[in-house]
């Protein structure tokens, strides 16, 4: 079965510092991959999705970027964090271009 | 863009009660998903359905495509069912994407 790994579980970063969150997928190849953010009191919001290596689509304009250097690796980055970047970040994957998504454990980011 | 509305936002029940959570959406979809988010934040997919009804243990999900409405039922609720339940609707082929409701916080008291 498909497993999504994310790290770290929690992160506290100062405003203006860089960010790199990594997501790796186990148990499938060529998955669709997604980065979501859940801000306090709000629903999940799709940030980026990728259908293959080097292919990234952005859903909302923001301070973040994503990259997919390998088939099973998806990275969320920022050069300079803002307070508004605080939230719970989830990576998800869908195997074989399917519809059912499997979620990672998430990273809780607090920007201070 | 699809709007996904869930009700109620918060629900408190006594152990053993029958629970219903509702979800409505505004635009036609490929499939509807029910997800469960535990206090630690992890999300588990409960159901994916595009018509009719699905059952898994004490959980039942139904969808009415014409009405653009889905319900999640929990029979004989238990404190371990306490979680946030999230409705999401999906569209697209190879670029399949989900739009999420804000979730329903369920608390089941012993």
Short précis:
Chain A has 112 residues and is mainly β. Chain A contains no helices and eleven strands.
Give the H and E element order of chain A. EEEEEEEEEEE
Largest sheet of chain A, in brief, is: 7 strands, mixed
Mean residue pLDDT of chain A: 92
Could you estimate the helical fraction of the residues of chain A in percent?
Answer: under 10%
Q: Tell me what portion of residues of chain B adopts beta-strand conformation.
A: over 45%
Distance between the termini of chain A: 38 Å
| Assembly of the depicted chains | heterodimer
How is this structure best described in words?
The complex is a heterodimer of chains A (112) and B (110). In chain A, a hairpin with a 2-residue loop joins strand 7 (65-70) and strand 8. With 112 residues, chain A is mostly beta strands. In chain A, strands 2, 4, 5, 6, 9, 10 and 11 form a seven-stranded mixed sheet that branches. Chain A has a four-stranded antiparallel sheet with strand order 1-3-8-7, with no helix packed on it. The model of chain A has no long low-confidence stretch (mean pLDDT 92). Chain A is globular, with a radius of gyration of 13 Å. Chain A is built from no helices and eleven strands. In chain A, 0% of the residues lie in helices and 57% in strands. Chain B is globular, with a radius of gyration of 13 Å. In chain B, a hairpin with a 4-residue loop joins strand 7 and strand 8. In chain B, strands 2, 4, 5, 9, 10 and 11 form a six-stranded mixed sheet that branches. Chain B has strands at 4-7, 10-14, 19-25, 31-37, 43-49, 52-56, 59-64, 69-74, 83-91, 97-100, 104-109. In chain B, 0% of the residues lie in helices and 60% in strands. The mean pLDDT of chain B is 93. With 110 residues, chain B is mostly beta strands. Chain B starts with a strand and ends with a strand. The A-B interface holds A 32, 34, 38, 42-46, 49, 51, 57, 59, 88, 90, 92, 94, 97-103, 105-106, 108 and B 4, 30-31, 33, 35, 40-45, 48, 86, 88, 90, 94-103.
